[in-house]
Amino acid sequence: RKRRPWRGGEEPVQKLEEVTLDEFDSLLILADYVAIKDGADMQSSDSRSLASLLIIQDIQNSKYKEKLEAGDVNAKKPCNPISEILDTRTRSLLRVVDCKGYVMSNQIVSAAIAQVAESREMNSVLGELLSAEGNEPYLRPIELYVTLKKKEQLSFWDVCLRARKRREIAVGYCTVDEEGGVVKYDKCSEMMLNPPDKDKKRLWRAGDIIVVFAQD
């Protein structure tokens, strides 16, 4: 579902409570670039972001608790909001507010500039990956590359070759757990990117995920 962006400070907390924050799959708190343009420093922007993070987490937990007390067996645990941070010194405060994830946008831009400075060819690669259009990462089911009924034992290189036939670039994978459970969204951090032993053959199973760069 599409939602319009909410800018902290424009609406009271009571208005924010009306939004179904506990039903979102993901939440990203962006830095207040308008305030920075008006003269605010990065620490001030980060303070607003962290304040918004605390408010959102409190509302999420309150709504989740209300559903549990009402006997809602289908109540879904709220997602962990991700906050954009501009000042590296703010990272020490993230543990205090129990922030599970953050994005250092300035650090990403600096790293991209450094790579382009080292190799100009990286400019076209980064431009493709970081633009709104073009190739981007996708999570594909293993069934697109391996015939599971044949119980094929293929290496990661073999999967890469089959991905190339689909005009995709395979960069990693995530396997199902030992009990054969399907990989869930919150387990994506366990993905193996640029895996070692790419030539080692393995038996792929239903539920395995291949990470690729592709156009949709």
Compact summary:
With 216 residues, the chain is an alpha/beta fold. The chain is 34% helix and 16% strand.
Strand content: 15-25%
The total strand number stands at 9
What class, by secondary structure content? alpha/beta
Q: If you average the pLDDT, what whole number results?
A: 81
Overview of the molecule:
The protein is about 35% helix and about 15% strand. The protein is an alpha/beta fold and about 220 residues long. The protein has a 4-stranded antiparallel β-sheet. A 3-stranded parallel β-sheet has the order 1-2-3. The chain is flat, with a radius of gyration of 21 Å. The two termini are about 20 Å apart. Mean pLDDT is about 80; it is low at about 1-5.
Keywords:
single chain, 216 residues, alpha/beta, 4-stranded antiparallel sheet, 3-stranded parallel sheet, 7 helices, 16% strand
Write the topology of this structure:
Layout: H1 13-16, E1 28-29, H2 33-37, H3 42-69, E2 82-85, H4 91-94, E3 101-104, H5 105-118, H6 122-130, E4 136-141, E5 153-154, H7 156-165, E6 169-174, E7 192-193, E8 202-203, E9 209-214
Parallel strand pairs: 1-2, 2-3
Antiparallel strand pairs: 4-9, 5-8, 6-7, 6-9
